[in-house]
Specification:
By secondary structure, the protein is α/β, with parallel strands linked by helices. The protein contains seven helices and 14 strands. The chain has a single domain, classed as 4-Layer Sandwich (Metallo-beta-lactamase, Chain A), CATH 3.60.15.10. Strands 1, 2, 3, 4, 5, 6, 7 and 14 form an eight-stranded mixed beta sheet that branches. Strands 8-9-10-11-12-13 form a six-stranded mixed beta sheet, with no helix packed on it. It starts with 7 loop residues before the first strand and ends with a strand.
């Protein structure tokens, strides 16, 4: 791909359910505010590969994993209707779910992998660490066993990117996710081991998953209370990733950074 080409012809964000939290319970010195955190999935239309998804949001499986579901919703109440699932969003856009042949997974938490079982015959792409965590299916890693896809699906770990990009010097590991330079991956450790963000050079868009819980909250990661710190796989790495993103966004104002829980409705870029 030539840098600045149009291998990615369309990018659309879907709100696939949401959860609610009191911001006072998440950050010190924050006023009481009940905030919705949408679970965003991203649909990419690739010129030759067709429909590619980055994450799949929630599904009703969030309510169907017995005591684990009860505990999860007691601490992090989630909301998803049938029409909110990534499957329903694709159908509403006249995109046949069977056309999705590749799914890029940022990490294996239920608000990101909830829709995997609604899809069939796709290749699942992520870092080796994320794929390993998913197949292990440990509740302590916030992996819901009833959301793990069938073992028959193809899985592929991302390979290093050998070119140059604006990401150089800010992130330790950069990947060539679709192996044509159109989607670059960055490792965003902290919230989950091996968490994968994606950068679209053609659009100057960086999707940073759960590196923080909203663009306006990046500056507050050091104010996080003890309980939400415990949710992070590695809080120290979480802070380091936030600092990398702060430097990157300050130096590259031309790049729009979108987090998976930014308060956005469905938007698209063409």
């Amino acid at each position: 791909m030539e840098y600045g080409g149009k291998n990615i012809t369309e990018v659309k964000l879907y709100k696939c359910g949401y959860c609610k939290n009191n911001m006072r319970h998440v950050f010190r010195k924050h006023k009481k505010e009940i905030r919705e955190f949408p679970a965003l999935a991203v649909r990419l239309e690739h010129k030759t590969l067709g429909t590619v998804l980055y994450d799949t949001g929630y599904s009703d499986l969030i309510y169907k994993n017995h005591v684990i579901s009860f505990l999860y919703n007691a601490l992090n109440r989630s909301f998803v209707r049938p029409e909110d699932t990534v499957y329903a969003k694709l159908v509403a856009d006249d995109v046949a779910p069977g056309c999705v042949k590749k799914v890029i997974l940022s990490h294996a938490h239920p608000d990101h992998m909830g829709g995997l079982r609604l899809l069939r015959d796709y290749e699942l792409i992520s870092t080796e660490q994320v794929l390993t965590t998913m197949w292990e299916g440990k509740p302590l890693n916030l992996v819901f066993r009833n959301m793990i896809p069938e073992k028959a699906i193809a899985c592929r770990a991302v390979k290093p990117f050998t070119g140059t990009s604006v990401l150089d010097g800010y992130f330790e590991r950069i990947y060539d996710v679709l192996e044509d330079g159109s989607v670059l991956g960055v490792e965003l450790n902290g919230h989950a081991k091996g968490q994968l963000g994606i950068f679209l050079p053609e659009y100057n868009l960086l999707f940073a998953a759960d590196a923080c819980w909203g663009a306006d909250l990046l500056c507050k990661v050091k104010m996080m209370r003890f309980a939400p710190r415990c949710i992070q796989n590695d809080y120290k790495a979480y802070v380091e990733t936030a600092e990398r993103l702060e430097r990157f966004t300050a130096d590259h104002t031309e790049v729009q950074v979108v987090y998976s829980h930014d308060r956005r409705e469905e938007v698209w870029y063409e």
